């Protein structure tokens, strides 16, 4: 569900600062409603299950971070790239490209930003002493659908 929402965010291009701010507010409101969803209509006031809360927070926080990066000024480019890496921890150049598209940058500006992005990505340590490598990959569609199925089962249990 969250990848679906994020993919639709990426379709908003170019997006103005005011539009990005409004989307950020709307995303936060949606996150709040989703977190309250398990207790809506219930006579007993209970906290949502931790697993449900974790999934909602993780997915919607990623959407919020994308919008915060879109709202950030792209000058100077080094600061913008570092801000992206810090907020999203995503080493995927395609995601970075989508954010540049959302900002409405020209292709000439985008190519220099992409090159800077590739240069500034943290390189995982290699060799026998290397620790666990950082993974920047998004969940696979199978993992995401599994999460959604778990979430649906959880919601059905609560309703019954």
From TrEMBL:
Residues 21-105 form the Vps53 C-terminal domain. GO terms for cellular component: cytosol; GARP complex. Residues 119-149 are annotated as: Disordered. InterPro entries: Vps53, Vps53_C, Vps53_C_sf. GO terms for biological process: retrograde transport, endosome to Golgi. Signal peptide: none annotated. PANTHER family: VACUOLAR PROTEIN SORTING-ASSOCIATED PROTEIN 53 HOMOLOG (PTHR12820:SF0), VACUOLAR SORTING PROTEIN 53 (PTHR12820). This is Vps53 C-terminal domain-containing protein. It comes from Pygocentrus nattereri.
């Amino acid at each position: 569900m969250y990848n679906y929402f994020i993919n639709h965010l990426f379709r908003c291009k170019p997006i103005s600062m005011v539009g990005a701010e409004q989307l950020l507010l709307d995303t936060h409101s949606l996150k709040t409603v989703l977190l309250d969803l398990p207790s809506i209509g219930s006579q007993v006031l209970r906290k949502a299950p931790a697993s449900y809360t974790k999934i909602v927070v993780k997915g919607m926080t990623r959407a919020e971070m994308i919008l915060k990066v879109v709202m950030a000024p792209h000058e100077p480019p080094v600061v913008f790239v570092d801000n992206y890496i810090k907020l999203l921890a995503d080493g995927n150049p395609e995601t970075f490209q989508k954010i540049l598209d959302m900002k409405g940058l020209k292709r000439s500006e985008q190519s220099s930003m992409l090159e800077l992005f590739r240069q500034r990505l943290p390189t995982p340590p290699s060799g026998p002493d290397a620790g666990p490598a950082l993974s920047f990959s998004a969940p696979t569609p199978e993992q995401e659908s599994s999460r959604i199925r778990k979430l649906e089962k959880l919601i059905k249990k609560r309703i019954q």
